[in-house]
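User: My advisor asked me to double-check a structure prediction for Ribosomal RNA small subunit methyltransferase I before group meeting. I don't want to rely on an old file, so could you generate it fresh from this sequence?
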Amino acid sequence: TGRLWVVATPIGNLEDFSPRAQDVLRRVSLIAAEDTRHSAPLLARFGIGTRLVALHEHNERDEADRLVARMLAGEEIGLISDAGTPLVSDPGFRLVRAARAAGIAVSPIPGACAAIAALSVAGLPSDRFVFEGFLPAKAAARRERLAELASESRTVVLYESSHRVRECLDDMAAVLGAERPAVLARELTKLFETVLDGSISELIARVAADPNQERGEFVLLIGGRPEQEDARLAEGRRVFALLREELP
Ligand code: SAM
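Assistant: Sure, here is a fresh prediction for Ribosomal RNA small subunit methyltransferase I from the sequence you gave:
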């Protein structure tokens, strides 16, 4: 029977392309790729000559049915995106859902993911976190989303594009307060990898002082709102007072 392989590719450093990922992509009959022009050079470099077909936002609905039919007929197909793990702020969800609904086995070949890589070096609490993907591009909607996140006590992980990093930090300062701890993880696994940590206002100052810090690809992490010790104590006292009235 057929199978869908969901295969992570590097987010910068080509040595993060796992041997198993390469083997599977060499072996499958077809690779569905977010952007075939983007992926062709990567695959060529690793001697992977498998045929590519485009699977992006705009054709995923139709293409998913076609690919599912091929897998039902016994083919194994690989799914990749431009970088990192497919489906994580990348296409593939509809194909995976359709494959599972059709009873086709879906297997991951795990590897690079910018969000997890950033979380693993940020030094913010990582036992519980939320991944928010990209914030809305328009300022008003972005501030609204940040306002929704203001009371979040878990670490928040965001993707941001380079031309909006300053705006985003400014909005974070305005909505979350300039003292909130944050981390800016830039160009992970690449030559100019930098991971800046500090309060939001410190990050703003460091980015302003060095325009290079605005270049490349970013993951932004926001420390969760500290649990409100006072509020918890007050609630504890209130509950205790209620219980005491019931006791003999
Ligand atoms: N699927 C990918 C993954 O697993 O990380 C993410 C795809 S998303 C369209 C692209 C975004 O991921 C970029 O805008 C940036 O926020 C983040 N990103 C990708 N590569 C990165 C890197 N090397 N360093 C920092 N952030 C990166």
